[in-house]
Amino acid sequence: MHDFRFRLACARSLLGCCAWVLLAALGTLGLCAPAWAAELPTIQLRSALAAPGGEGRFPTDVRPFEVKLPDRWADTRPGFDGSLWYRVAFGLPPGTAGPLGRGELLAVSIERVCTTYELHLNGQLLHRAGRMTEPLAYHCNQPQLVTLPAALLRDGVNVIDVRVAGQRVNELASESSAGGLSALLVGPQPVLAAVHARQQLGLVTLPQAMAATLVLMGGFMFVLGFVNRRDSHLAYFGALSIGWALLDVRLWLRGLPLGHTVVEFLLCSLLGFIAWAAVQFLLRYAGIRLSWVDRALPTQAAVMPATLVLAGGGQMHAMATLWYVVLTLEVAAAAWFYLHWSARSASGGRRSRGLMAVLMAVVAVAGLTRLIDPWSVERWTVTLAVSLLTPLVLVIVGMRLVQQQGRALNVAQQDKKELEDRVREATAEVESKMRQLAELRVEQVTERERKRIAADLHDDLGAKLLTIVHTSESDRISTLAREALEEMRLSVRGLTGKAVRLADALGDWRAEVVSRLAQAGIESEWEAPEDLPQRLSARAYVQTTRILREATSNIIKHSGATHCAVNARIAEGDFALVIQDNGDGIGPDVEGRLDRGHGLASMKNRAKQLQGQCLVESGPGYGTVIRLTLPLDRAAEGS
Fold first, then answer.
1. Which end of the chain is more exposed for a tag (fewer CB within 10 A), N or C?
2. Residue 117: its pLDDT value, please?
3. 470, pLDDT greater than 60
4. Nearest one of 162, 161, 160, 165 to 130, comparing CA atoms
5. What CATH number matches the domain at 499-635, 3.40.50.2000, 3.30.565.10, 3.40.50.2300, 3.20.20.140?
6. Is 0.70 topped by the overall pTM?
């Protein structure tokens, strides 16, 4: 339990650190980004000549047409796929020594290009980002920086050709994955490297960090909810976090061995499972379980991919957009249902309604994210902030859930402690009552019941055992029956409650012990006073007999002794019985066997019940001494 609480504390600390770091990074980006374009000495290229073609250079057999950058295929050419060439030109005045002159290394920065591309400078190939044919590498979220070699630059006009390979929007689940090219920045390489580093932080590193945090947090929450079935909402929240992180898988794996359309199909299908987890999390968090919802959500998650397949590649975008609307409305309805329920329920009021209100707002903002143009350079920080808002809120919600789990654990611990205290108090009270009842000594009732049980045992069980002893043809069965008969007689004697003279008891014990040791080939020695007037209660006689029998059995079975001495005496008002053998002693392995069943522990427990003690002194190779001491004033009392 302490280890579980430690893990909760660690998880809460980790999530808290991640949230603060990400918030600080977002704040830094928000402060710095708006001034970049105005402060940096760069040339921004916002127009280009475009021509379709798949050759290794800008096509000359096709008449190019002018386009404005950024060029978003989903708007300008929704039915086009394949390769499209873009040609831009910039001039370098001869002998210029300024920041854009030939004396300083230049570079070109491309904030966004979909899906993959290659770049040529003055007819020479400089860079190719992945395959230009299916399966295409995915670079839509990867800012690009290409250094322009000084040897390829020339005074006057320089031409940059960019070949972009992409797909038509109808075959994709998201418009942001369609082909296109953003505006180009040309400037000093150190300056653009700083710009690229900031873009890489905001567009790649931060989303990757968020995704990794969601996977770690989601895995922890899923295991926590799976183990504790009463907290199943934690498992659904963990599945929600992991599923949302998987949406950014192309930040980690740009060159998947699958076609672009297939990847879009898989990611769109994943949204069905994410909505399933989100709706169930909201309902289970409210303590509500609806059987029809439990059946409908898995069915929906299975039907969604089927509808995308039936719609065909040319209608994937339309079908995906329809599903986006349906899933968003479902999650929003579940959030509203929780808020409505918690407002009317006394138990729900104790939950954090504000937390669910934030989730509801995030769902709305996540839907609006698709309306923001990701190709606009001026608005990229807004796009970034909105795209990071959902995972950031999921991390905060995870922190809140971990905190609630920790508090619930503390409350459970306190309740458990209070329950244990009450049980101890009740147990002590019951024991006190029992002692009071025992002190009342309802002798007549107990004595009559004991005599009845003893008579039944003697007349019924005793007669049957005696019949088995005399009629059985098997020596083993006859022996076992005789032993059972002796044990039954001893029990009957204890139930009758008649006290026994100590001298008579010693005579019975001597006859039995000496006989058993002799049969086992062990020499015996018995020393006891001749005439002892003291008396033993029936209970003390029975328990002492069983202790002596157990000690004798241990000597015969385990000690390997050849001699055993038994000494009985009265010392200071106590009856003392010492049994000593010259055997091998009790080793750890033997002691473990003796402690099982009716062994040494049983002997000690019987002595303790008589307010006495049974001490065992032994060592390997030194024999064993058993010292039984019983107070005669207690041993003489009736049981």
1. N
2. 92
3. no
4. 165
5. 3.30.565.10
6. no
